[in-house]
Amino acid sequence: MFRPILRAQLAQPLMCKCMQRRNRIGVVLDIDGVVKQGKRAIPGAREALIRLREERVPFIFMTNGGGNTEAQKAAELGELLEFEGICSEQMLLSHTPFRPLAERFRQRRVLLVGSAETAQVARSYGFAVGTMAVRSTQIVKGTEDIFPWPRATCDLPAINVNAPGEPPIEAVLIFYEPADWALELQVITDVLAGGHPLGAEGAGAAALQRAEVYSSNSDFLWQAGYPVPRFGNGAFVCALQELWLKRSGSPLQIQEYGKPYAVQFQAARQLLSQVAKSNEFEQIYMIGDNPKADVRGANFAGDPWRSMLVCTGGAGGAAGGSGRPFGGVERRKTKRGGKNMRMFWAWSFSP
Ligand SMILES: [Mg+2]
């Protein structure tokens, strides 16, 4: 896709602009669909990063993905792209802004929702995993018949939420979409309902929601290795909202993190400032493939953010409404008529 209106904007190489004011430009890159697709690097991504480094343009990665620590993600990405020096300080995962919640809930019990690695991630943020920050699998393991289907055991200690003296679960932190939706949805709705035994309350109109809910991203779909996008955390949250509404008669109250929410873009700017050792930016370019998350979020964030839409990911470059990008990236045809997905944006975008 190539918009004629952008032709003039794209004509001037980045190098010239950066040489003039490189200290005032920052770049924030989405990961899936921008520098990689599934387990494959997108051709040209490595060269783009090399160019940014050569031009001393500070950059970080901001993804609505998660499920592992920032250090692991940085190492994996560096290996995939064969690009040395990506560090955890350049990595903003969907759940990275959950880090301060560890202190807020230090003395209160919370439920952690996500992939198998969520315990390790939460531990790295300072949560007391296994005791005050618990997994649904611990509850299923220790609370008889709360989930009436056989499931894999978990390594963390069993917890009987109905035992005398057990603290109430005061918040649900959704780090990442879990693999076992059925188990998680049952336990979460029980936690939201409260009561004794857990889940006894919460039936009927205007029922109280007895736990706060934090969700790390709202992407309904994401581009994995499979040719067709897969359900993401937003789809899981949709299912939870619908179940809670049907059960309690009240809409779910939820605090959303991740792109396109302002809290995530504030965190990105903070991280970029640390990398650049300056908070003085004339432009911060959000390079993304998702109009609803990357483009809309950057547009809502306002100055100095600029949204740039690449055509290599799930959206295929289509944008509209509030997802209209500030700029775009060409997708060229090869001589054989196939799509040339090379990411040449690092050479071609300009304010
Ligand atoms: Mg993406």
Automatic annotation (TrEMBL):
Protein source organism: Durusdinium trenchii
SUPFAM superfamilies tied to this protein: HAD-like
InterPro entries: CDP-alcohol_PTase-I, HAD-like_sf, HAD-SF_hydro_IIA, HAD-SF_hydro_IIA_CECR5, HAD_sf
Protein name: Uncharacterized protein
Organism superkingdom: Eukaryota
Gene3D superfamilies per UniProt: HAD superfamily/HAD-like
